[in-house]
Amino acid sequence: MAQLTISDVTLSFGGLKALSDVNMTIEPGLITSIIGPNGAGKTSMLNCISGFYHPTRGDIFYKDKKLTHASPHEVSNMGIARAFQNLELFSGLSVLDNLLLARHQNLKYGFLEAVVFYGKASRIEAENRAYVEDIIDFMELEPYRKSLVGNLSYGVQKKVEVARAMTLAPDILLLDEPMAGMNQEEKEDIVRFVMDIQKERQITVVLVEHDLGVVMDISDRIYVLDFGELIGSGTPEEVAGNPKVIEAYIGEG
Amino acid sequence: MTDNKHLLLYSIPQLLRWRVKSTPKRPALREKDFGIWNTYTWQDYYDYVRKTALGLRAIGLGKGSTIALISDNIPELLFTAIGAHSIGAVSAGIYQTSMPHEIAQILQSLKATAVFCDNQEQVDKVLDVRDQIPNVKKVIFEDPRGMREYMSDDWFVNIRDLYKLGDQEHEKNPGLFESLVDQGKPDDVCHLCLTSGTTGLPKGTMLTHKNYINMGIQLTEVDQLEPTDEYVSFLPFAWIGEQMNSFGVAMATGITLNFPESVETAMSDLKEIGPHFMFGAPRIYETIRSQIWLKIDQSYWFNKLLYNYFIKVGIKAAHYRMRGKSMPIGLKIKSWLGKQIIFRPLVNQIGFLRLRRAYTGGAALGPELFTFYQAIGVNLKQIYGQTEIVGIAYMHRDGDIRPETVGKPLPGTQCKISEIGEILSKSDSVTPGYFELPEKSAELLEGGWLHSGDAGFIDEHGHLVVIDRISDVMHNKKGEMFSPMFLENALKFSPYIKEAVIYGNKEDFVACLINVDPVVVGKWAEDRGISFTTYMDLSGKPEVAKLIMQEVLDVNSRAEKEHFKIKRFALLYKLLDVDDGELTKTGKIRRKYVQERYQNLYEALYDASVDKKEVEASFQYQDGQSTTVKTSISFYTVKGV
Fold it and tell me: What residue ranges do the domains of chain A occupy?
């Protein structure tokens, strides 16, 4: 069964249709990419899934649960985490604090327990720290643990952004242009992480990315959007041979 | 401590067993992982060595096998090495930065039958050359990250599976391990250490248990270490400087070895541990000093004022302290004040507060650096030795630090200067020879003395002074001798100069290529509103050349002999780099290679009519791609030479 089903989703802002009748199925354990020229509706699609926008028409299902009108925190509680294109981190906090903060929904102790900080509260804090340390190790962020996010280079901040999404222990990870603005070396790094996230952690990855080379290399399945419409889908080879896709990218010859 | 001598009767695994018997619960190793320092007691250490040893035996290693180690410093590296020693096998270290073809060559020439890698990066390199290394039967790895696709291939062994195999063997035959350890003899070869290879392909120096343990004992007879002392293991394990600590000093004294979380975090982990002693190549001390200067420069005015005043006091006091003389009472008070107000907090910032002794070796260090560190309260001392004598044979004693020398021989080490001026040594730590190179070994150990290949003399205080490699000493056209390394170090004392290459062999005068320090000169340029893009651009700025000209004039004014003075120089457009083969892995200049590579610059240095030359510079990026850039490089003639 598909992990995420998007059926006939339409999203309009007044007269402008950002998405029209889009259908997608995200299979568990694979890397699915959504590509398309600027303004094609890729980020809108992610916004619909993560609950920032609600589709005007159509439905989104997570397994058999309907999340068409779920709010962002409900979506994230279900196990869908997102890393943003424009970094959404607290630049005045350390990397560690940013990641611990992302675990706040797991901090299930009350005010008094926090004051006493013995038994449950300290145990939960320790568990969360251990979880976060595991992610720090996975994303190789050890040298930056105590650094303020605002002082880090853009490439490292991007890694922290992905790590923050990972700390939510998601089943599905939505990555919005994780490689934008990076140099070749940083890109190769992130690609390796994305593949490890999928293969070692068995997390389904939905990737929105501009770098077609990367997308073709690592995706199991690709959806192509253009002006809010789905113009092609399939394996990388199928998509690369699709004349509509070529036209959308290169323009009419 | 003379009661240490009985330790010489043990092999390394036997000595480990002895430590377990006397202090089983004391921490032996500590590793930072997932943000926490995890402790291995001597008992744990021994248990893991047993698991590894029997596991290695189960996969076919034994007497006569060699296991190569390509890994960052982690406890598992020591488990594997000492595990191998326990079953009579030999370990060999390979630098983690080695390229696949180098690894293949080394594995073949050392006849390695197994390889230990810490992670996928190293495993992939070995995999790359798999068809060239038929002798290698197994590759053991520690970090399973990224190894999922290799697991179906039984060439690879996860170290956890190796432990399991070892445990099974131990259950079947509980006395086996002890009896294997019993078979070890102190004079057995246990490790092949690659010599740093300033010339040609590295050779495997055979070192015995006794070589290592003796070195540890000799060292601690001069500088006492307590079993509660901490040491941070961050030097490459393939370098003798690290093994002498993990095999020799740690075993002989029972200190705790601390392994940083990753190479990048080594300096901040060092701060957390606060070691009691440390070793390092000169580069580490140069870098730390540059960082201190930079931080002071960026600090606010009051801090700067304090620093600038007390560093002068500190340097004065350092001169007394280094000679072991008592200083005038006024200076004593001022230097005490300086220590409390500024230097203790400063030293604490770099994690050196508990440091009793810091040693530098591997290459020469500018005299001013000693004074600097002594002034801020770090007891920095020079050591000298070769891989072939387990790293240290000569060392400064506390209160007798003469920066221009490398100190006196360790107790039990004899020293002699040969007729041609070569430094010869003799001690229990001298290698039995190179692996399967009988001719080279005979040359090395001719007459029962270890031939260092270095020129030197013993001064009036009984200290050894090292001039340079015998093969590196140069003569100008008139036949006057000079040491390029000596002049390079004089230049490198300037914070603005990162690296220098001196020429002048069979020429009329001395000339050099200079690498400016990108950080310090970059900051200098920024402060003066000089904008630049790349290192090449920065090096080409006429203002920077003016700055360096001042530094060269300064060095010339201090030159002891007229023919030491530098007449012409140029600023090189790229940093000399290990990856480009211009430096050895320990940071020494590969003179011959550099000369060939920059032949056109060399010619221009000795052609007074040239003051600008177009050159094509080729760069190799880390991913292996290379590009060519056209640039013009200027040549400067120094006045008054």
Answer: 1-79+170-253, 90-167
